[in-house]
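Hello Y.,

Per our agreement to keep a running log of every chain we model this quarter, I'm adding this entry. I've kept the format consistent with earlier entries: sequence first, then predicted structure.
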Amino acid sequence: IIVQVICTVCFLAVNTFYVRSSFDFLKADDMGEINQTLVSEFLFLGLSGYPKIEIIYFALILVMYLVILIGNGVLIIASILDSRLHTPMYFFLGNLSFLDICYTSSSVPSTLVSLISKKRNISFSGCAVQMFFGFAMGSTECLLLGMMAFDRYVAICNPLRYPIIMSKVAYVLMASVSWLSGGINSVVQTLLAVRLPFCGNNIINHFTCEILAILKLACADISLNIITMVISNMAFLVLPLMVIFFSYMFILYTILQMNSAIGRRKAFSTCSAHLTVVIIFYGTILFLYAKPKSQDLTGEEKLQASDKLISLFYGVVTPMLNPIIYSLRNKDVKAAVKYLLNKKPVH
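Predicted structure for the entry above:
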């Protein structure tokens, strides 16, 4: 976790340098030679140079998307219908599942269409909507993961005060603040991006309207975008990660003070699923954005295959793994799912 904190700070610096260097490169070109006709649509480069791989990607993404819808949908239904799951932890888990469905549904269908029909264009407004949902869901997920870590901290370190601190009003308010903050952050970032003029290259070397790839296509000063993105990264990436880090430090200290081996195992088991999701989520972000060249496109350059696999992993595989991780490592969730599937009372 300490390494993750350090890497996240490094990511902010790399992210800032990378986007700024892209704009400096654009300014170095002869701006008089750029077509001043404003861009009305964007084209996804995707895997246009690998037609055979496109078919494989289409099948993989389709299967994983169906798993995302079914897995997260079952978790949401289970958390609503099973009274034993009416706790803060499962309430946050239900929000996380709904978020994963929204995030993937904003980008995966268009990706599937582009892979199977070769229709790779997206309108300017459609790209803005996709960018908004992607940024909103990502920001909200970071905050929700931080809230879930705090919930585990209170449950393990202050079990007697847990019903008071994590009351229904408190955890509903925490989730609402996460959604509202993520939405506001996305509105700000999206508005700052769409206000920019795009008068040159309109080819996005990505599967979706990823904001860094979009900013590289702008033919105007993006200093304000860089500043707001750094502030956003600090608030929605580093701050929740610090909450997670300190929560688990206190949790680890409390667990080590327990005399009962059974108690220690039970405490570890309640945190293992959440910690696994955190490592996958933040680890994938760091791998995805740690390479400035992975987003360096001019319309003719191509991302390396490993970068595109990482992009796929972050956008599809991670939301698919969340319900699997929580269902496999949680007895209550498994029992609730069995109840839904078998429609038999769970004793």
